[in-house]
Design a protein that fits this description.
By secondary structure, the protein is of the alpha+beta class. It folds into 5 domains: about 190 residues, Hypothetical protein af1432; about 140 residues, Beta Polymerase, domain 2 (2-Layer Sandwich), CATH 3.30.460.10; about 80 residues, no CATH class; about 80 residues, no CATH class; about 80 residues, Alpha-Beta Plaits, CATH 3.30.70.260. Helix content is about 45%, strand content about 15%. The chain has 28 helices and 19 strands. A 5-stranded mixed sheet has the order 1-2-5-4-3. Strand 17 and strand 18 form a beta hairpin. It binds manganese (II) ion. Manganese (II) ion binds next to loops.
């Protein structure tokens, strides 16, 4: 029943003199042994299926590795054969091809794809078929499975397979130009999916063709003699269109199935390109043309490489007919698409390379006089190499640019999913959110309602959608956080000038600050990009701001005379807190007298003091007065991680400790960190130490220390 490899070898010999019969026979026996004992739904031995697939590919005149792959294509999936064994026995190409076919077969289509999903799925299959032969074997596999579909007992399974064939595999065959395979797949699927309609079309076809039985050969002969009259050698045939293609035309173009043109295509084969146009001219001179039917697919090939001239004429006996004119080479491409191309390495003077990029590349390889093996080796399907296709757990397909990560996937599903994503499982394994996705990956995004996008995601995401969503989120977050601090600073400034601050009056002056919301003014102040004094000035133009004083205030050399008790009789001298070390009440301090400047108070141990070590006469003993109602300013150098929530958290812990932020000055901002000087109103050094302690315990605070340099 199964026989030997001989019929296949004979078939191959007809087009490939270099075929290795020993290798083919070994593959044949290997496959037969692997599938030994297995049966098809038809009850036949399983190995009849791989043999049938190999025959389909031999009819397409494919290379030896493709035929061997066909014989072995189910051994890894259905038997216990490993890829390593195949590689050792038949070489790397065969094992890689079998691997590719196996992967395509394992891509179960979870839910019936919508038409958009089906298109994505076809792209996925193409992208996964790095070598076009994988796709050719897969399509031949599907073709044989459709031929034997009637043996599948469950009707719903037959319908599912037919649907998949119609939605995925037939368009895929069309895409790479396998017209014969496409037409067979469509028609066999049509039979399952809409058998009644197909039967009524066939009945009508039978009636029309029995009527036209004399007509079709007569027309063919007359067309041929018309063209040959001017010395163009040609052959003309009339071919019935398939029931499915007629039905599809009836759907889209309201074709009625009355005219010959609706059911028969006449095909004129001429030796070369020039003859195509000459034959066309001859037809147009002898018969009236039907408007709107002429198409030049020679100068503009279809995207799958198809080339022909199409025209409609009112032909012999006044029948409206459709005529396709092409060369034998074009005909081979029309039937076999990509599978046809390598034949042209022999005598292809008239072969006009199709304007389809990847086929052109293939044809370029042929010019190098390479053998069929090498030709296919370079036939990479780089059509969709800039994309990856991944699945949601429900089986929906998501197309992303190559290099996209789990975060891109999450945002592609929905912005909400992106913003709450917290982790990911890829093919069931927990992975990093930054993981680059691969074709066919199943992605499960782990979301958590209180999770938030992180600013550093922006560095690794690939899609504009994810990037802009993350940026929008972090920007909004930043406004929220800085505005809290900014508002406090504005309120404080107004208080110092005995003016009440009203959000509403600020709301009426927004245009002056170039923003549209009050929060944005707060944020500008909080980010140290706008002085709170400018806000005061804007809302109370009667107040004159002393810029020098502002500068002094900002550098914060404020006079705190009343806080200090100075030994000796220097009362009345101006006393200034040193900007280099910002001593706080409770700390050991020393005063330095400078002419013109008065007394500057330093912390004991401040490095600045070493400058005065030679002038003991300038040193003054000073001490703090006890006045618990007053507060003083201290400055902290702070490094905070730059992420949503960090500034809010900082402001919260400081106020919980009874501290008050009086100023903030950003010195540096990187994607990872804020670095800033933070001026705090505190009671004394103990108070400041307590605040430093809670800040150090805060998860966002990278470092915090007293500022002791000016
Ligand atoms: Mn199979």
């Amino acid at each position: 029943m199964i026989g030997t490899a001989d019929p296949i070898i004979e078939k191959m010999r007809a087009y490939n003199g270099a075929v290795d019969p020993g290798r083919l026979s070994r593959a044949f026996e290997f496959g037969r042994a692997a599938h030994d004992g297995q049966t098809r739904a038809s009850g036949e031995p399983y190995f009849t299926h791989p043999v049938a697939v190999a025959n389909i590919l031999a009819d397409m005149r494919l290379d030896e590795d493709s035929i061997i792959t066909a014989l072995l294509h189910d051994t890894v999936e259905d038997c216990d054969v490993t890829l390593e064994t195949l590689q050792a026995e038949f070489g790397g190409d065969v094992s890689q091809l079998v691997d590719g076919v196996t992967k395509l077969s394992r891509l179960a289509i979870k839910s019936l794809p919508s038409s958009a999903q089906a298109e994505n799925f076809r792209k996925l299959l193409m992208a996964m078929s790095e070598d076009v032969r994988v796709l050719l074997v897969k399509l031949a596999d599907r073709t044989h499975n459709m031929r034997t579909l009637s043996f599948i007992p469950k009707p719903e399974k037959r319908v599912r397979i037919a649907r998949e064939t119609m939605d995925i595999y037939a368009p895929l065959a069309e895409r790479i130009g396998l017209t014969q395979i496409q037409s067979e797949l469509e028609d066999s699927a049509f039979e399952i999916l809409n058998g009644d309609m197909r039967q009524s079309i066939i009945t009508r076809l039978d009636y029309l063709t029995s009527e036209a039985e004399i007509t079709i050969p007569t027309i063919s002969v007359e067309l041929q003699s018309t063209i040959e009259r001017v010395g163009i050698e040609c052959s003309v045939t009339g071919r019935l269109k398939s029931p499915y293609s007629i039905w599809r035309k009836m759907q889209t173009k309201a074709v009625t199935m009355e005219q010959l043109a609706d059911i028969v295509a006449f095909r004129v084969l001429v030796p070369n390109l020039d003859d195509c146009y000459r034959a066309l001219g001859e037809l147009h001179q002898n018969y009236p043309t039907v408007m709107g039917r002429f198409k030049d697919y020679i100068s503009t090939p279809k995207r799958n490489g198809y080339q022909s001239l199409h025209t409609g004429v009112l032909g012999p006996q006044n029948h409206r007919i459709e005529v396709q004119i092409r060369t034998p080479d074009m005909h081979n491409v029309a039937e076999n698409g990509v599978a046809a191309h390598w034949h042209y390495k022999r005598s292809n003077q008239d072969y006009n390379p199709p304007k389809y990029k990847w086929i052109q590349e293939l044809v370029g390889l042929l010019d190098e006089d390479a053998g069929a093996e090498e030709f296919f080796e370079h036939t990479k399907m780089d059509l969709y190499h800039d994309q990856v296709f991944c699945f949601t757990p429900r089986g929906d397909l998501i197309a992303l640019p190559r290099g996209a990560t789990a975060v891109d996937f999450a945002y592609a599903v929905h912005t909400q999913v992106g913003e709450t994503c917290n982790g990911v499982r890829i093919n069931g394994k927990t992975r990093q959110l930054a993981t680059e996705l691969q074709n066919g990956d199943q992605i499960e995004i782990l979301a958590q309602s209180d999770a938030k996008p992180r600013a550093e995601w922006e560095k690794f995401v690939k899609t504009g959608r994810a990037k802009s969503a993350i940026r929008r989120f972090t920007r909004a977050q930043r406004v929220t956080e800085f505005s809290r601090i900014g508002k406090a600073l504005i309120e404080k400034t107004f208080r110092e000038h005995d003016r009440p601050f009203r959000t509403r009056s600020l709301g009426q002056s927004l245009s002056a600050f170039g923003v549209s919301r009050v929060e944005e003014v707060f944020a500008l102040v909080g980010e140290d990009r706008l002085s709170p004094l400018r806000v005061l000035e804007k809302l109370h133009p009667d107040i004159v701001i002393d810029d020098d004083r502002e500068a002094r205030d900002r550098s914060r050399g404020q006079t705190t005379q009343s806080k200090l008790k100075i030994k000796g009789d220097n009362a009345g001298t101006a006393v200034t807190i040193a900007r280099c070390c910002h001593p706080l009440p409770g700390e050991a301090i020393v005063g330095i007298f400078t002419t013109g400047k008065g007394i500057t108070v330093h912390k004991v141990g401040c490095t600045t003091l070493s400058k005065f070590s030679d002038a003991p006469e300038l040193w003054l003993d000073v001490s703090w007065e006890q006045d618990s109602l007053r507060t003083v300013n201290g400055r902290l150098n702070t490094v905070l991680s730059n992420e949503p929530g960090s500034l809010a958290s900082l402001a919260t812990v400081i106020s919980q400790q009874g501290g008050n932020i009086s100023n903030i000055h950003l010195t540096d901002r990187t994607p990872d960190f804020f670095r800033f000087e933070l001026d705090l109103e505190v009671k004394d050094v103990e108070h400041m130490r307590a605040i430093i302690a809670v800040l150090q315990a805060n998860k966002y605070v990278e470092s915090v220390e007293r500022s002791d340099t000016g």
